[in-house]
Amino acid sequence: MKTILIANQKGGCGKTNTAITVATALAAKGYQVAIADADNQKSTLHWTKQRPSTAFKIMTLDWRNEKSIGEAPSHIDYLVIDAPGAVSGEHAEQLISESHAIITPLQPSFFDLHSTKSFLKRLKDIKRIRKGKVEILLVANRVKYNSAKSPEFQEFFKKIEQEPVVWISERSAYGQLAMQGLSIFDQHQKRYLDIQKQWQPLLDAIIEDETKWF
C-alpha cells in the first residue's frame, strides 16, 4: 500500500478537494483506494456519505482519533490522508511515518505563501523528510488566469527552491460536484476531461503506471 498525505497548515487552501480528487482519480484507474480523514472538520467523511453507490468505490477511514492512525485494510493499493490543519509535533511525526509522499496545496495569495513557507520549513525538521524518505509535492491550487505569472508567486517558489508539480485552475465544477459526493474524475464529458488533464503530472509523480489515463 502506498500512502499519500495531503497537508498544509493554511486553512482554505483546497486540501480536502485535493484529497478527494486524487483518491477518485486512483479509483477510476481501477486501484483499491481508501481516504483517511484525520481532520476534526470531517469534510472528507461528509463527502463520502454523499457519494452515490454508482460512483467509483472509495473506502473511508476515520483517523481523527490519533489511536486510529495506521489502521487500514491490507488489500488497499492507495491510502489518501486528509490531514488536520495543525499538523505538528508527535501528531505530524505519526502521520508522516505512514506516508510515502506529501502533497501540499496552496493558493496564489500572500497569506497562503507565507503560511506554506513556514509549514514546509517545519516539515523539513522531521527526520524522515530530512533523510529524503518522503517526497513533498506542491500543488498550485485555484489559480486564476495569469496569476501564475505574478512576481510574488514566482519569487516565492524561487526562495523555497521548489516549483509546483501542477497548476490547477479555479473551476466551479469542483464545488458543484463535491456537494453530490463526486469529483471531476467521476465524470466523462469532454469539459471534465480537460480539467482532469491538469492533474496528470501529479498523478504521474505519485504512481508508477504507464497505461493511458485519459
Write up this protein.
The chain is α/β, with parallel strands linked by helices. The chain has one domain: P-loop containing nucleotide triphosphate hydrolases (Rossmann fold, 3-Layer(aba) Sandwich), CATH 3.40.50.300. Helix content is 37%, strand content 18%. The protein has a seven-stranded parallel β-sheet with strand order 3-2-4-1-5-6-7, with helices on both faces. The longest helix has 14 residues, at 15-28. The model has no long low-confidence stretch (mean pLDDT 86).
Unreliably modeled segments: none
Instruction: Indicate the percent of residues in helices.
Output: 25-40%
Neighbour order of strands in the largest sheet: 3-2-4-1-5-6-7
Shape verdict? globular
Q: Give the second-level CATH assignment, the architecture.
A: 3-Layer(aba) Sandwich
CATH level 3 topology: Rossmann fold
The helix-and-strand class reads alpha/beta
Q: How far is it from the N-terminal to the C-terminal residue, by CA?
A: 24 Å
- Tally the helices: what do you get? 9
Order of helices and strands: EHEHEEHEHHEHEHHH
**How many domains?**
1
Global mean pLDDT: 86
Strand content: 15-25%
What's the CATH C level? Alpha Beta
CATH superfamily: P-loop containing nucleotide triphosphate hydrolases
| Sheet with most strands | 7 strands, parallel
Number of strands: 7
Taking all Cα atoms into account, the compactness measure Rg is: 16 Å
Protein name: Chromosome partitioning protein
Domain CobQ/CobB/MinD/ParA nucleotide binding: 4-179
